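Sample A.
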Amino acid sequence: MTAPPPDGLPYRPCVGIVLLNRDGLAFIGRRMRAAGPEHVDDTHAWQLPQGGIDPGEDPYRAALRELYEETSVRSVSPLAEAPDWLSYDLPPAVGRQAWRGRYRGQTQRWFALRFTGAESEIDVLRPGGGHKAEFDAWRWERLDRVPELVIPFKRPVYETVVAAFASVAIPA
């Protein structure tokens, strides 16, 4: 058994997006294995869109960019922002592989957005800006069910996100 990453490693600054349709259901994508070891195990491959914040980038702008780069979605209106940054640590074996071992995990700013477009706008296989696909499938799901579908080490963050956005995860 190998030692966990040193506690001195920083968290990777990221954003997370709860994209809600008119029925109050959340977009979830099924991560491809090639998207990275930090996202997929054999059972829990679903997650909400999320990604890194570029240096100097505003978190809300990063959320809009990441959403487009993963789903092709641009038709959104803001609903809410989680009050705090939420963090999780990667399991040691994953931490050595993900992001070349530079981070202990992620600290995330979460946003809830209402999807205002047509479902034909969503394209996870050929996402916006020519970015490499990270999802191989997607669906709408009740927000309260999402934590049970994600990889277990992310579950506490997802449970907090569900609680933070429960009041906006309702039909429009």
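Sample B.
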Amino acid sequence: MINFNGTIVSQDDNILTQNRAFLYGDGVFETLKIINNKILFLEDHYFRLMSSMRVVRMEIPMNFTMEYLEEQILSVVATNGCSASARARITVYRNDGGYYLPQSNTISFLIHSQPLENTLYEIEKKNYEVDLYKDFYITKQLLSSIKTTNKIINITGSIFADENGLDNCLLLNDSKNVVEALQGNLFMLVGNKLITPPVSEGCLNGVMRRQILNLAKKIENLEVEETVISPFDLQKADELFVTNVIKGIQPITQYRKKNFETNTALQLLEKLNEMISST
């Protein structure tokens, strides 16, 4: 028996007591966007998930092929009636047993989905203000580049943003360099140079980050570079924007007293939608 919210209930009725993702953050996940019953950037998501599972020493089942996961995800989306446009998440966690040291490296997975309003990516015409979040820092290590179920920095940072009337916050690593935003990777335009922090700085190895890097390299007279961004560099930028698979591109219009343009973000968004429409 256990005490759940002040009531004594059977432990068998509460699966959280046996879920290692809940107990220890022993899980990894992928968030995906589905348009017209097609998972965007499926191959990138699949290989990042497989890489994440290997990093944390999870046993990958023999049937965990890309085709199998695609079938499982789309079946949930279809059941929920949101095949036209949906957000889906697959969480993979180590099976019950042990404490910090697991008794097994076998896994289970959970997939859920919800509908989205728009099919193609759009940018809302509104002010979008950010600031630095300096209470906690991201460490420059491999675990920071994968999506684990331990996202406490993103949670506390989101609370900080909400309490201070901000739309987002930028996260720093243990070298006090700017790494990413709370909900995605960061890009900075200075003149004709588009810069994003390298994965070695501790940022997420984002699926949308990879798409934007590839699209940006096709824009004439635009130089693309993966290099360190310091807080001082933000004041010199012409544009700042955040990328993730669900939102696509979110331009930042204000950081402290500095206002930013959105031209390159809009240009990249147009190319992103063209790429999606042609596949």
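B remarks: The chain has two domains: 2-115, 129-278. The mean pLDDT is 94.
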